[in-house]
Amino acid sequence: MKRITIFSILTIILMSSCIKFKNDSIIKVIDNVEREYFTVDGLRYELCLDNNSDGVSVVMLEEGKYQGEIIIPDEVKYKGDMLKVMVIGADAFKDCDQLKKVEIEAVQVVGSDAFRGCDNLEDVLISNTQIVGENSFDECNKNMKVSLNNVMVIKKDAFNGCRNIETK
Questions:
Q1: What Rg, from alpha-carbon coordinates, does the chain have?
Q2: Which helix (H) or strand (E) holds 17?
Q3: Burial (CB count <10 Å: 0-12, 13-18, 19+), residue 76
Q4: In Å, what is the CA distance from 71 to each residue of 3, 32, 64, 103, 147?
Q5: What is the pTM of this model?
Q6: Digit-coded pLDDT (tens) for 25-80
């Protein structure tokens, strides 16, 4: 017979209080901030519910990895509202070795290590973006064509370890 410890019971209670399901999204409480996760057109987004933000972040998939060609829009429709895509989260596309092309239309920040280790990334277009974070494209070893249009700040080592970068 299995013994259920007090620790196991507390773990189950804590987990159930931190994760709620609502329609097609998942709500989690992280660092005392409610965050809602949802997916639109294959991209997973995070919406912080406690800061009255009208913006969302692109985050890592719960299972699997992004692949092929990705277009990160400037806005996404969710529950009838248009939400601004503000941030590509840290590590959001990290080690997505089947990612070939990324088009970023207008976000405020491309997070640190966002595309780190995307070995087969061939084509990158970044437009109307304030900050490309540290090591954002670190270790993307393939011959990469990069187009930067109206990018305000490129942080240290954003393209570190990338060989044969060609600008468009």
A1: 18
A2: helix 6-18
A3: buried
A4: 50, 31, 18, 5, 14
A5: 0.77
A6: 443 444 445 778 899 999 999 886 655 566 888 898 877 789 999 999 999 998 89
